[in-house]
Futalosine hydrolase (Rhodopirellula islandica), 181 residues
Amino acid sequence: MAAAASTMQAIQVHQPERVILAGIAGGLSDSAAVGSAHWFAGVICDGIGVGEGNAFVSADSLAWKQWAGTDGQSSDSIGDRLELPVPDQTAHSINTLVSVCAASSEAALASRRRSLAGSPPAEAVIAEDMEAFGVAMACRMTSTPCMVVRGISNVAGDRDHSQWQIDLAIQAVAGRLAELD
């Protein structure tokens, strides 16, 4: 939540042409190997709704929008998913990131999150983080384009921080950022 609030504040103060969220995430799939970095064409909010585990029902599934829009019209309302622009050289990307309130603590939860893709292929959901949906939502609400690049520091569900490869993940993010025009 702090990421969304501080993004909204920074956009109001600095009025950027675009926002690029760069950082780390936990990998949910073999295609998101530790030490790799990925641009994301979409982000899904998970954990806001009713129930938990397999009984969880998302806010959007309950017809509750994350944001109703400027005048209550559905044309600019925000549900549980947002599409994101990606750099031209990765325009074919279907990578989807899931933003969560609490990171996966076990393999079963990571597996459930991989299945959130719905209409995109299941393999599209490759990583989880805690900030991207809130930041992307703040950007959408201010009509500021938002791009997201995440370096994979760990396998989602691995809570042993001694196994995490944060430096390697950040180096991979730097490489992706260097690809921008």
Q: What stands out?
A: The two ends are 31 Å apart (CA to CA). The longest strand covers residues 146-155. The chain has four helices and nine strands. The longest helix spans residues 2-14.
